[in-house]
Every structure is written in structure tokens, then in C-alpha cells.
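re the bet — no i am not wrong, look at it urself. input seq straight from the record:
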Amino acid sequence: MEFDTDGNFIQAWGGESGPGYQWPSNEHGITVDYKGFVWILGNADGKSNNPASLPNDNQVLKFTKQGKFVMAIGESGQTGSNATQVLKGATSLRVYTKTNELFVSDGYGNSRIMVYDADTGKFKRMWGAYGNKPLDMDARPPRSELASVPWVGVSEVLQQYASPVHDVDISNDGLVYVADRGNKRVQVFTPEGKFIAEQFVGLDSKYPLQARSVAFSPDPAQRFLYVAGSPDIFILNRRTLEVLGSFNIGSPQGDPPGHLIAADHKGNVYAVQAELSGADGHSGGAGAYKFTFKGFSPKISCPPCVSTKRTQ
């Protein structure tokens, strides 16, 4: 579905399979690249996230802006693994202009970043947390068994992405930002997968779903990094990853719509609420929400030592 920035409907297409591809049972992630192509992916695998009970989605699909099918990466019905090039429960995707490469966060079943040639769909490389080799779930240290030795357990668990690694985006200066929702952190890499830095967000929140998605401010230097959490979007210094502040994105229905976010050329922030039922099991409301970022409030000297990083 396509809308203008005022929320007016423009066009829609898709919903049915065609020659060479299966329309996903569960779409999860969309991007429009610098050539105008529209990319989507499905993340239904087995009975997980599969409302239409179709064969496994595990595909990336490329279309023109008018909805003409161009290319598929992967095949419907396949089951992925970190030991293969097959997606499993992928979540989001972006095309990096300078190298014409497609970066995919893969996802709920696998926990890694996949990179493909954006023209041919050829697999190029993959990596996990800290640039480590990603492991299948059954090859990782179980969290429950490590709970009795937290100083060891946390360290070992964090060496792999938790389920799911939920979003990926690339800055203008060529840094890859990965939202590791299961571990409440953002990690930064070179496009080749070399680890640079990380930052945790929302560790003190009662909501478990933090670091869901990332977006950049529209200035040329992209000074700010927006990180979707629950019920706030955190604002970070993109270069240092210092948490500068946050703003609340609670929906009228009472549940935070931070499943995936984006920012436009004017600095408006868009957040999507996907679940019909909210985090409390009752509230919710699927839809997209637009927020106008107005900047930071003035700093308040200490004393009184109240928060100096509020936003409007």
C-alpha cells in the first residue's frame, strides 16, 4: 500500500502469487531502493507467523513500483538454517547504494545478517553478533542452563543474536546498524561485517521488546539514530551511540506502535503497529503512525537534578 505524507491512499498491489513467486503468508519488511524497486519479504516458517497456512515464505521478492514482479531470492517451501543460504523468518531489508547490495536481517528462525547482490540475488556473505559465525539455535548455549552462572551465561549468550534480529539499515557513510531485539541492543558494522560498536537500550523497561528497529535523521551527517523500543523511541548520537533522549509513542489504543520505524526527508518519524492485540494482551490496533520531531528541550542545571534529556 502506498500513501503520501499526509496519509492519503495512492495505490496498492499484490496479495496473490504469480509465475516465479509465492505472495507471502506473512509480509515482514519493505524497502524502496535507489533505483525505485520495491522489496518485500515473508517470514512465515512452518506454523510460525503463517495465517494463510501456505508453504514457508522464506523469500525476498523484488517488484517495480507499479507491482511488476522482477526477481525472487529463495524459494517458497524451503526451511532455512544458519548453515545454509536459505532465509528463515527474515524481518527487514535495505539496499546499500554504493555497492548495490541487499542486506537482510534474518530473523526469527535464523539470527544473522545476509548480504546479496541486488541485481542477481547471488549470496555474498553473512555474519552474526560481533561478526561471529552465526549458530543454529540447537548449537547455542541454552539460556536456561546458563542462568545459574549469569556472569558466564550473559557473555556466552550475547555472542549470538537473540531471536529475532529485527532490522538493519545502512548510513550514508557506510555503517551497518543492526537491531538485535532479543538482546535489547544495536550493533554497528562495516558493510563487510567487521564489528565496530554496540549500545543497549531499554534495559530498565518493563516491556521486553526493545531495539525493534532503526532509522536516521535526515541531515547530511545523519547525526541522530532513532531506535524503536516499547513504549519509547530512543534518540542516540549516531557516531558515539550515546542515548540522548527519547519520546513516547504510545498509540491511542494504549499499545506502543514501534514494530518497525522509518524517518523521512523532513525528519518525521513513522512507526508501525503490527499486532491487533497489544503487549498486555488486550490493547492494540494495527496501523501506521506519524510523529513530528520538534527537538530537545533546554537543559536544566543541577540542582534541581531532573532529567536534562527530555524531548518533545
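see?? Residues 2-291 form a domain with the Neuraminidase fold (CATH 2.120.10.30). told u. also The chain has one domain: 2-291. so pay up
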